[in-house]
């Protein structure tokens, strides 16, 4: 029997962090977009279309995908992407499944991310994660 994902939550958390990849010996900027809603039975993937033009990034949420493995786990649906050449001013737009958008402006340096502008009344909350080493 095929699993059908539950309805998608409307709230998201955008986590941004600077990471150092020991294997590649490169600094990267990690963007993690996840639902505020946690799911009890499975950790779904957040199906997201991404576009990048220079330092402007657009993430469009398309829906939920069932997990690749059938292991039972709980937590939010998640999408994650690392960029290795993202430094300076950056604008990130999150587009919800209903077409609403939230835009964030950041200044990214070698070891930190500074928020310059975020939406006042939005469906996406921002969380800065301190420097970490990515897991591969």
Helix-strand makeup class: mainly beta
The overall average pLDDT, rounded, is: 85
Sheet with most strands: strand arrangement: 3-4-6-7-8
β-sheet strand percentage? over 45%
Helix content: under 10%
Give a count of the beta strands, DSSP E runs of length 2 or more: 9
Count of runs of 4 or more consecutive helical residues: 0
What is the C-alpha radius of gyration, as a whole number of Å?
Answer: 15 Å
The description of the largest β-sheet is: 5 strands, mixed
H/E topology pattern: EEEEEEEEE
- Unreliable stretches: none
- Assembly context of the chains: single chain
Q: How far apart are the termini? A: 32 Å
Shape: globular
Commentary on this structure:
With 136 residues, the chain is an all-beta fold. Helix content is 0%, strand content 60%. The strands form two sheets. Strands 3-4-6-7-8 form a five-stranded mixed beta sheet, with no helix packed on it. It has a four-stranded mixed beta sheet with strand order 5-2-1-9, with no helix packed on it. It starts with 11 loop residues before the first strand and ends with a strand. The model has no long low-confidence stretch (mean pLDDT 85).
Topology at a glance:
Blueprint (H helix, E strand, L loop, with lengths): L11 E10 L4 E14 L5 E9 L2 E10 L9 E9 L4 E8 L5 E8 L4 E5 L6 E9 L4
Parallel strand pairs: 1-9, 4-6
Antiparallel strand pairs: 1-2, 2-5, 3-4, 6-7, 7-8
């Amino acid at each position: 029997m095929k699993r059908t994902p539950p309805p998608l939550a409307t709230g998201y958390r955008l986590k941004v962090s600077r990471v150092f990849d020991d294997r590649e010996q490169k600094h990267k900027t990690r963007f993690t977009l996840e639902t505020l809603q946690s799911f009890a039975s499975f950790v779904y993937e957040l199906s997201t279309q991404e576009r990048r033009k220079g330092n402007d990034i657009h993430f469009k949420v398309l829906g939920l995908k069932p997990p690749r493995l059938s292991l039972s786990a709980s937590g939010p649906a998640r999408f994650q992407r690392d960029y290795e050449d993202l430094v300076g001013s950056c604008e990130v737009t999150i587009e919800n499944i209903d077409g609403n958008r939230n835009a964030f402006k950041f200044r990214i340096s070698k070891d930190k991310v500074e928020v310059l502008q975020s939406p006042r009344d939005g469906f996406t909350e921002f969380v800065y994660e301190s420097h970490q080493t990515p897991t591969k």
